[in-house]
Design brief:
There is one protein chain. The protein is mainly alpha-helical and 272 residues long. It is 70% helix and 0% strand. The longest helix has 29 residues. It starts with a helix and ends with a helix. The structure holds fe (ii) ion. Fe (ii) ion binds next to loops.
Length: 272
C-alpha cells in the first residue's frame, strides 16, 4: 500500500473506529476516577474484572493457536505465558538490583519488558493471583470470583466477543480486533481506575495492593508505542487488505468492550 493510501486509510480509522464511544465517552471510568465508589461498588467491580481477567486466557490461547506465522504465534505465547505466571526475563533490569527472591511474583517489581524465553514461572506471578490479593482485602473469596457464573450478561458478552473476534481463526478479523483492543487499552483507562482505587485505598483499605493495575498501566504505555508500527507493517504486508472489513471488525470489538463498561456502569448505579 503506497504511503498516501496508508495515510488516507489511517484517517478513516481515526474517524470511523477510534472515535468509538468506549474511547471518547466511558461513563464508568469517568465516574470511578473521582474516587467516590463505595465498598459495595468496588467489590462488584472487582468481581466482573476477575471474570474478564480469567476468561481472557481463552481468547489469548485461541489467538495463539490461530496465528498466521511463527512470529505471531510467539508474540501471542509471550502474552499468554506471562498472564499465567512466567516472568519476563529482562537481563538489563536483573543486573541492576532486583534479585530472584524479590521477583517472585510481586508485580511492583516484575518487569514489563523482556521475553518469557528463559523466564521463570511462579504461581504467584499469575495476573489472576495478583487480583486475588485484592479480593482478599475487599472481602471476596476464591469461590466468589473469576468464573462464568460470576459474570453479568454484559461481562460475558465481552468475554465471548473477545474469544470470537480477538481469537478468530481468520487472521484478518483478529488483527482488526487486536488493533481495537490495543487502542482502547492505551487510552488511559488503567490510569483512571488507579486514581479511583487510590482514593478508595485511603478511605477504606490502606493495605490494598494496586500493583495488578499499575503493572498493566505500565505495560500498556509500552504497547501503545508499538501499535502504530505494527499496523503500518501489517498494511505493507497485506496490500489487498479490505479496509471496510477492518473497520467493521474493529467496531464489533469496540462494541464488545463498550458492553462490558456499560454493564459495570449499570451495576454501580444499581448499588448506589
Ligand atoms: Fe494481565
Amino acid at each position: 500500500m503506497p504511503a498516501k493510501d496508508l495515510a488516507k486509510f489511517q484517517e478513516r480509522i481515526n474517524q470511523e473506529l477510534l472515535h468509538h464511544r468506549v474511547i471518547t465517552n466511558n461513563e464508568f471510568t469517568h465516574w470511578f476516577e473521582k474516587g467516590e465508589a463505595t465498598p459495595g461498588q468496588v467489590k462488584a467491580f472487582i468481581v466482573q474484572f476477575s471474570v474478564f481477567s480469567n476468561l481472557f486466557l481463552i481468547a489469548q490461547l485461541k489467538k495463539m493457536i490461530h496465528a498466521d506465522s511463527l512470529e505471531g504465534m510467539r508474540a501471542s505465547k509471550e502474552i499468554l505465558a506471562n498472564e499465567l505466571g512466567v516472568i519476563f526475563n529482562n537481563a538489563k533490569k536483573k543486573a541492576v538490583h532486583v534479585t530472584d527472591k524479590d521477583m517472585e511474583g510481586d508485580p511492583e517489581l516484575v518487569s514489563t519488558e523482556g521475553s518469557i524465553e528463559g523466564g521463570v514461572f511462579h504461581f504467584r506471578a499469575a495476573h489472576f493471583e495478583w487480583l486475588l490479593k485484592i479480593c482478599d482485602l475487599v472481602g471476596l473469596k476464591f469461590q466468589d470470583v473469576g468464573k462464568r457464573r460470576h459474570g453479568t450478561e454484559s461481562t460475558l458478552f465481552f468475554c465471548d466477543e473477545l474469544a470470537r473476534l480477538y481469537g478468530h481463526e481468520d487472521y484478518k478479523v483478529s488483527t482488526a480486533a487486536s488493533y481495537a483492543i490495543e487502542n482502547w487499552a492505551a487510552r488511559g483507562f488503567w490510569k483512571q481506575l488507579i486514581q479511583g482505587l487510590q482514593a478508595y485505598k485511603k478511605k477504606y483499605c490502606p493495605n490494598l495492593p494496586l500493583a495488578f493495575f499499575t503493572w498493566h498501566d505500565r505495560i500498556e504505555d509500552q504497547h501503545a508505542r508499538h501499535t502504530q508500527e505494527e499496523l503500518e507493517a501489517y498494511f505493507l504486508k497485506h496490500p489487498d487488505l479490505n479496509q471496510d472489513d477492518f473497520i467493521r471488525y474493529g467496531n464489533e470489538m469496540m462494541e464488545g468492550i463498550w458492553t462490558f463498561w456499560d454493564g459495570l456502569n449499570q451495576t454501580r448505579k444499581a448499588i448506589e
